[in-house]
Amino acid sequence: MFIVPQYIPIMAKITRKPAPRKAAVPKKKARAAVAKPKAPAKTSLKAAKPWTPAEVREVFSRFRKANPEPKGELEHVNPFTLLVAVVLSAQATDAGVNKATRALFEVADTPQKMLDLGEERLREYIKTIGLYRTKARNVIALSAKLLSEFGGEVPRTRAGIESLPGAGRKTANVVLNMAFGEHTMAVDTHVFRVGNRTALAPGKTPLEVELGLEKVIPDEFMLHAHHWLILHGRYTCLARKPRCEVCLINDLCRWPEKTV
Name one GO biological process term (predicted). Predict the structure, then answer.
């Protein structure tokens, strides 16, 4: 008769023990840990002090003094070969494209000669370039379209160039600038980085950066502006390790992480 009373308090103790364990989960601490990291520094460029017209003019005056006649690094002999080279350069280096096109342009430097060469033989010339099969198809197709719709000539309008297979806005801007002397701003990965990093023309897309640069750069510099920015991004304002110590504009640059 006395066995039951002995087990009642024991059972009560057993049922109480799990309760503190459940309450001990540090939910609030976990939330606090998530909230600790600071917001990305990307927003700082948007908040950076805007460049004054005098500062922008100073930047491009320095670029011009250091390199009065900058040249694009894609080798070509006429507007058609320039167009082809730019189409081939997508997701590839200029050096890699030049290595392939030197021999190609010796045998096919017009739309008709490119069609005569044919897609299969064209692939053999450019097989060292990334996505060469798709690019070969586009080059043959754009050559055919140039002959059928543009009299075998590269059109001198952005809309006309963008209508060609494999050619987009950047391609059109490069061709219009380099072949026809138009004041266009071609935004590649280097120009996009420089525009954002320096806060000269911050933007989330290449088009935003392009329009921002066109807005702030004086017209007298626009013919060569995209070359100066490309070369600056390619050889000085590098993606992983910018060479701030030799940068021509390090005293004006708004990048909060510059090393000088």
Answer: base-excision repair, AP site formation
Q: What does 223-259 look like in DSSP terms, one character per residue? A: HHHHHHHHHHHHHTS-SSS--GGG-TTTTT---TT--
In angstroms, the CA 25 to CA 16 distance is 17
Beta-carbon contacts of 254 under 8 Å, excluding residues fewer than 6 positions away, are 45, 48, 49, 51, 198, 199, 200
- Tell me the whole-structure pTM to 2 decimals: 0.79
Judge residue 2's burial from the number of C-beta atoms within 10 Å of its C-beta, 0-12 exposed, 13-18 middle, 19 or more buried. Answer: exposed
Question: Is position 85 annotated in a ligand binding site?
Answer: no
Fill in the amino acid letter for 159: A
Is 116 one of the catalytic residues? Answer: no
Q: Which of 170, 204, 219, 241 is catalytic?
A: 170
Establish whether 251 is a catalytic residue.
Answer: no
pLDDT digits (tens, 9 = 90+) for 114-148: 999 999 999 999 999 999 999 999 999 999 999 99
* Neighbouring C-alpha atoms within 13 Å toward the C-beta of 65: 8
